[in-house]
Every structure is written in C-alpha cells, then in structure tokens.
Amino acid sequence: MKGFFLPWNEREKQVKRGEKKLYLPKETLSLTDAAFDTHKPAYVSLPNPRGTLRSFLQAVESGKKDEAMGYFSERVAEVVDYEEMAGFLKDLKEYHCFLEDEGAGIRRVSVAKKSKKDREVFAFRMVAEPNAFGTWKIFSIEREGKENRALLRDCCEQMGVSLGEKETEQFMTYLSLLLEWNEKMNLTAITEPREVVLKHFADCLSLVPCVEWRDGMRVIDVGTGAGFPGIPVKIACPEIELTLLDSLQKRIGFLQEVGSQLGLEGVHYVHSRAEDGGQNPQYREGFDLCVSRAVANLSVLAEYCLPFIKVGGRLAALKGPDAAAEAEQAKGALKKLGGRLVEIKDVAIPHTDLSHKLVFIEKIAPTPKKYPRNAGKIKKEPLS
To answer: Is the pLDDT of residue 195 over 70?
Structure first.
C-alpha cells in the first residue's frame, strides 16, 4: 500500500537512537540556495546526507520526478506515493534540516516544517549505498510527532474519550503553538512534547468522561492560563460554549491565536480577574459548569468560581492528592457560597504514575452578593 510516511522495518527499529532533542534543533542548516551559498563549498560539492537531501528537495520543487525518485532506495521507491509527498514538501514555507548519526551506517536528516499555520518535523533516514562511495539513499520517511499522536490517541482510548483525526491534529497544532509562544512568555514549565501530551492534554481530558456534555452547554474556565483544561475539553467536546477567563492580557492573546489556528467556534476570551468577573452581571451565575485546574486551596477556589455558576450547575476542579482534606476544610465556605460537595473521583493518567482528584461541587443556592470579595481578603482570610 502506497503512502508518504514510511516506517523502517523491525531490524532497523532496533538501531540505538541518540538522545538529542529532535523537536526544535538549536543548530539547523537552511535548505535554501542563499543559505547554502554562505557555507563552505563542502556542503554543496561533496556527497553527504544533507547535500543529498538538498538535491532531492530541489528535484521535487522543480517537478523532476524521475530524478527525485532516484534518491530513494529500491524498496522505498516501490511503495512511496510521490504525488502526496511532493505536495507536502511544496507546501513548505521554510524548512531547516539537521543531521544525527544513529549508528550502523544510518544517518537521520530531520526537516522542520514551518508555515504560518503549522509547524512540525519529519525525518528522512538515509543509508550509504554499498560499493558506491559517497552515495546516499533514502530508505525511510517518518513524520516527527507521530509518536505523540499515537500516545494521545492511546491515552484517550484508555480513558474512554473519543478523539478523531481532526481533533488529534488540533492537539498537535496546539502543542506547536504552546511551545513556540512559551519561548517569549511564561505559559508552562513543561516543554518536552511527550510530557505536554501526558501532563497537560491527557490530564485535562480525564475530565471529559466524567461530565454529561450537551449541545450549547455554557462552560467557563476560570484562571485558564495556557488554556487548561478549557481548550482540551473544547476540542473533545466542540458542541459546548466555552469562556476562557484570565487576568493576563498576554495569555488572552495566546489563547485567541490558538482558537484561530484550531478553528474553534463558540469560544469567548475574557481578560479579567476572577473576583471582578464574578461580580460582573454579564457573567455572574450564567454558566452550567465551571472548570478549573488552579492550584488554590478549595475554599479559595470556590469563592472565585461558584459566583459564575447558575443554581443547578457544577464546579469541576482538578485537584491533587489532598483534595479530600481540602473538601472537608471547605464545608463552611461551600455553605456560605451556595454550594455542596457532590463527589470526589480518583483519576489515573495512562502511561504515567500520575493521579489526581476530580472534585465536583453543585450550586444549590444563589451566591450572596458580597461574594466574591477582593483578592486580598480571599487569600488572607479564606472562608470557613
């Protein structure tokens, strides 16, 4: 069966791979004529994996199919879908490559795709032809990040979350944007793609099977930060109406870019402190569900969040292992704010030793108008 991304066989999979970070290489070589001309002639004149790949890409861009196919090993040439591959490569706006020695005569040349809407890395594995000094052939093409896609899909399957190809790609775009923007502003301390998939995406998606989602359900994420858990929930449950509230305008700008790039509809971005938003008639007691992954104590979190929820609605808080103790201490606060504890669920994140608690609080009475108080009082004098 023909295809663009071609895995290598089981024997070759056993070749020990280096530990270099492949997602965003620090040292790259631009595959443009101008950039190559600024380097030593050896990059151009001597046969080597990068030079071979450059010639291959030039052949593709020039529409020279026969010449381009000559750079593939015989096995790959028989199964590669050239038109699909050429279309993918021609869509590149900018690309850089870097070389990694994997041993056993194998060189991995990874190319970072950059365009306005997307960024990803894909890799060409190349091997020297026997008895043909300096001649390299492409024997494998892999989409970098494929493992992260599979990891996310497997986590969702284990947690009972339905995630299609479109939603998976939205998460990968979200991942790229998160890491890109994190270089210029503080969004997350987790920067390894695999860790983001597990500790952010899968962690947030663990909420999805625990709630009865419905069309038009009004959900607010208070103190959303980089969009957690609101955006992962929205991707998995596009039928909801989502409001993302955060106190930092820069983060709101990031979230708007994410929403635009992912094509999310029915998302509202609000720049406001939680205590101000909770007193705003536009938002007060107007939501069916409030979600939060904030680190605040449950008494404090309840005062920030319950004013947003209509009577009959719920607060879903992603908390750590001390959730039960926090809930016990927050009983008085919940009573004053019009809420009551419904349940605490244990959640395990697949492929990790992580676990957390989902705390569900129901809104059973209107919140008195004096709540929420100003931030200073909420933190210094938590309700009890």
So the answer is: yes
Task: Report pTM.
Answer: 0.68
CB 286 within 8 A of CB 306: no
Q: How far apart are CA 288 and CA 269, in angstroms?
A: 17
CA atoms within 13 A on the CB side of 107: 20
Query: DSSP readout, 13-63?
Result: HTSPPP----SS-SS-EE-SHHHHHTS-THHHHS--HHHHHHHHHHHHHTT
Q: Does the structure show a pLDDT above 70 at 15?
A: no
Cis-peptide into 366, omega within 30 deg = no
Angle at 230 between CA 276 and CA 201, to 5 degrees: 140
